[in-house]
Amino acid sequence: MSNRLLGKVAIISGGGGAMGGAQARLFSSEGAAVCVADNRIEKAEEISAEIIDSGGKAFATNLDVRSADEWASTISKTESKLGSVSLLCNNAGANFRVGFEEQTEDQFRLIMEV
User: Fold this and answer.
1) Interaxial angle between packed helices 41-53 and 18-29, expressed in degrees from 0 to 180 and rounded to the nearest 10
2) Core-most of 22, 35, 68, 94, by most CB within 10 Å?
3) pLDDT in tens, 46-90
4) What angle do CA 100, 104, 105 make, to 5 degrees?
5) Claim: this prediction has a pTM higher than 0.70
6) pLDDT one-digit tens code per residue, 18-30
7) Number of structural domains, the chain?
8) Residue 71 belongs to some domain of the structure
9) Checking phi first, is residue 90 left (phi over 0); if not, alpha (psi -120 to 50) or beta?
10) For position 105, what pLDDT does the model report?
11) CATH number of the domain encompassing residue 87
12) Do the beta carbons of residue 75 and residue 11 sit within 8 Å?
């Protein structure tokens, strides 16, 4: 790759998922240091380990995107470990394997909150 993101620091919310994981890997391959943030910490740790094993710089953190406190903690940890945040990619999402008409009100609210 061309190192277009060399020296940049990225936070990827939903970084443990397919889309977020792909972005984290791509940004790392372009030279960025990456915070892989997800509420499924095991998935985030897997992606982070892949990046590190490939020679990149990354760490994983737990993040519920609905929590301002967790966002503040994620930003603080990222700046402490990697430097000033340059990029933010929001990939977190929620869905349920039911049709819209079958969704409960709580399911709908969760989707909208995330």
Assistant:
1) 20
2) 35
3) 999 999 999 999 999 999 998 999 999 999 999 999 999 999 999
4) 105
5) yes
6) 999 999 999 999 9
7) 1
8) yes
9) beta
10) 74
11) 3.40.50.720
12) yes
